[in-house]
Every structure is written in C-alpha cells, then in structure tokens.
Amino acid sequence: MGKMGSRRVLYAEDEFTNRKVIQLRLEKEGVECELAKDGVEALEKYHAGTFDMVILDYYMPSMNGDQVALEIRKVDSKIPIIAITSDDAGAEYLQSCGVNEIIIKPLHGNSTISRILDYLRDVE
Predict the structure, then answer these.
(1) Cα–Cα–Cα angle for 28, 30, 36, nearest 5°?
(2) Does residue 39 contact residue 65 with C-beta atoms inside 8 Å?
(3) Maximum pairwise Cα distance, the chain
(4) CB–CB of 91/109 below 8 Å?
C-alpha cells in the first residue's frame, strides 16, 4: 500500500513520551501528526486546522477526551475519533460521546499504529 500522502492527524495526549512515540511512528508512515498536550489545546487546534482524524487520550488536564469528542461532534459528525484509555470500563461511555474506536493502554506499537492507519485509509 505504501505511504499515505497528506493525511493529518490531531493527537491529544498529556504524557510527552506517548505523544512523541505515536507522532514519530505516524510520520514514518507519511502521516502529519499535530500534537496537543491537553483537551483545551486540542480543541483550539481542531478549530484552527483541517484534520482527517482526531486521537484523544481519555484522561487529560483541563479537559478530558470525552469532553473534546462531544465538542467536535457538535460540528463534525464524520471525522474519525479514536480514544486511548487505560480504563476499558469507560469504553461504552466514550462511544456514546461519539468516539469511533477505543484503544486500551498500554499501547502496543505496531498494532496501535496499524489500527490508526486502517481508519485513515477509509477516510475519503
């Protein structure tokens, strides 16, 4: 399939290491990855840019991923939203907030990235 051109992902995660790992892996696949350190910054960047997907950590300072997903869904019903959480008990609730897919931590490099890439391939 090769690299994916001109796909842009917004990734909100308060933990620096997780942020950088996912960013580097996606960029290696040719996906541009914009980072946000919390939910408030994620929403600012979302409204200021154009993205093919949003990836949200569930628990973040100032605004959690569920709240960000709800805000995005008010203006965009189609963009894929992936939530990353260490708490699989919240999965059903996250889906009710408009999240398409939930990835449970710890993140396992290749499978996490391939799930993200699968979603991006389906974006028109």
Answers:
(1) 80
(2) yes
(3) 39
(4) no
